[in-house]
Amino acid sequence: MRIILLGPPGAGKGTQAAVLSATLKIPHISTGDIFRAHIKGGTDLGLLAKSYIDAGKLVPDDVTVDIVASRLNEKDCEPGFIMDGFPRTIPQALMFDEMLEKFGRKIEAVINITVDDDVIINRLSGRRMCSCGRTYHIKNNPPKVEGICDVCNNSLYIRDDDKEETIKERLKTYHQQTSPLVDYYQKKGLLKNFDGSKPIEVTTREILDSLQNK
Ligand code: AP5
Hints:
Elements: E1 2-6, H1 13-24, E2 28-30, H2 31-41, H3 44-53, H4 61-72, E3 81-84, H5 90-103, E4 109-114, H6 117-125, E5 127-129, E6 135-137, H7 164-178, H8 180-187, E7 191-195, H9 200-212
Parallel strand pairs: 1-3, 1-4, 2-3, 4-7
Antiparallel strand pairs: 5-6
Helix pairs in contact: 1-9, 2-3, 4-5, 6-7
């Protein structure tokens, strides 16, 4: 199964993608995680990406599309994938369609998770991350031991772009550049809408049910 997760920053895409990936046994591909790994590794790409991410802007389309193309070439993507945070602009979506056509593959569902902007600011300012990719929230989804990942025991950290000013900029970027994709995938008959303000497990169940009923 090939799925795209769409939604504003903090809607719960990464949280849902981790569960869906484990349940459906297909890889979770997050362009944000790929950029953060490059930033951590100090690569040229990481340096470039950081200048955009820290400003709440999008990394240029050509750079992002190249990264996705090389990730999709890996063997684990053959049975399918969950794309989290890509595409994020209409040009990215058009290039992604072309890329998939070359691979002879099709997207089966676009999961659009919606949450109001004020909820998002609260969520992202309480988010805690683990280097293994798991995501927690100090109130809504706390780890069993404060500051420590339940699964790998690493110390949790706060993302550099989770400062209130940067969150507001990311929301602006979402409304200007990413939200037109809702209409794009609606017209293709692929869009499924979910209220991301419900409890995490409820949203997971609703998404899995809708995928089973396809
Ligand atoms: P990226 O890493 O993709 O960030 P994002 O889209 O801004 O999304 P987030 O990771 O912040 O939120 P999420 O929806 O995954 O929410 P989460 O599950 O963590 O991108 C970062 C940057 O990289 C971008 O700004 C851009 O610069 C660049 N980039 C990435 N892709 C790009 C692309 N395609 N093109 C160009 N540039 C790109 O949940 C948030 C919090 O809420 C957590 O604490 C969680 O525990 C909690 N939570 C989740 N669900 C619920 C719930 N139902 N109820 C209560 N709390 C919940």
